[in-house]
Design a protein that fits this description.
- With about 120 residues, this protein is mostly beta strands.
- The protein is built from no helices and 11 strands.
- Strands 2, 4, 5, 6, 9, 10 and 11 form a 7-stranded mixed β-sheet that branches. The chain has a 4-stranded antiparallel β-sheet with strand order 1-3-8-7, with no helix packed on it.
- A hairpin with a 5-residue loop joins β5 and β6.
- It is globular.
- The chain starts with a strand and ends with a strand.
């Protein structure tokens, strides 16, 4: 059984910062690509950022220059540092990871709410 547990969401004023964390636990053999997605009310879930095992990163255009994704392989954890937050960043943020146990499977976290408002 594999679990992804996110933390770090909350309420922040425009221009502020938050750091999200997502820790994977369970019978893990290897973790491949990890990423963050978000879903605002009435919208589809969208990619925010991804990071490979070789630390190659990819970002949505809307967050480039403001968000930074990183990972700590020793802790099976991925992070999302979010700076210069805007009201349009308000959404539920979901962690995603491609993990090998017996088979290679995509897993999702339960989501953490980020609200940017004055």
């Amino acid at each position: 059984q594999v679990q992804l547990v996110e933390s770090g969401g909350g309420l922040v004023q425009p221009g502020g910062s938050l750091r999200l964390s997502c820790a994977a636990s369970g019978s893990i053999f290897s973790i491949f690509r990890m990423g963050w997605y978000r879903q605002a009310p009435g919208n589809q879930r969208e990619l925010v950022a991804t990071i490979t095992t070789g630390n190659m990163t990819n970002y949505a255009d809307s967050v480039k220059g403001r968000f930074t994704i990183s990972r700590d392989n020793a802790k099976n954890t991925v992070y999302l540092q979010m700076n210069s937050l805007k009201p349009e960043d308000t959404a539920v943020y979901y962690c995603n990871a491609e993990i090998s146990t017996i088979v290679r499977t995509m897993y999702w976290g339960q989501g953490t709410q980020v609200t940017v408002s004055s």
